[in-house]
Amino acid sequence: MIDDKINKALTEMEANLRSVRSANDQVNNTVNAYKALAASTTAYADSLSVIKDSVEKLVRAVGNDYDKNIAEFDKDRNQIVASCNQTIADVNLTIRDVKLSFDDNIKQIHNKLNYLLAINGIILLAMVLLHFWG
């Protein structure tokens, strides 16, 4: 009887030890899996950090290039606007000069026509007088 009790107790202890050993193996497997996951997650996070840095550099480079191009376009636009404004001013000045010259020519032609009309009137009057006098 004591032997049975001892065997039964030993069998229960063996089962309990197997259960503890199985639990220990599960804990070890979980710890090892966690370590592997932590290592791969760290590598993944490092890769993402490198990608983030590269994207930030690219954004800065594009931004700087954009700002440079905008500044050059503004400079070119300002030069074109200034050139157009100068050309418009020159054309307006030329038009004013041509208009004044044209007005002066019209006045001179008008004065010459008035002189011709006066001379023709005098000649006609002289012819009429000569016709009646002669």
Characterize this entry briefly.
With 134 residues, this protein is mainly α.
Secondary-structure-based class equals: mainly alpha
Shape: rod-shaped
User: What share of the residues does DSSP label as strand, in percent?
Assistant: under 5%
Rg (CA only):
56 Å
Instruction: Please mark out the parts with pLDDT under 50 across 5 or more consecutive residues, or reply none.
Output: none
Q: Counting H and I runs of at least 4 residues, what is the number of helices?
A: 1
Query: What's the end-to-end separation, in Å?
Result: 190 Å
Count the E strands: 0
Mean pLDDT: 85
The major pleated sheet works out as:
none
How much helix, percentage-wise, in residues? over 70%
Element string (H = helix, E = strand): H
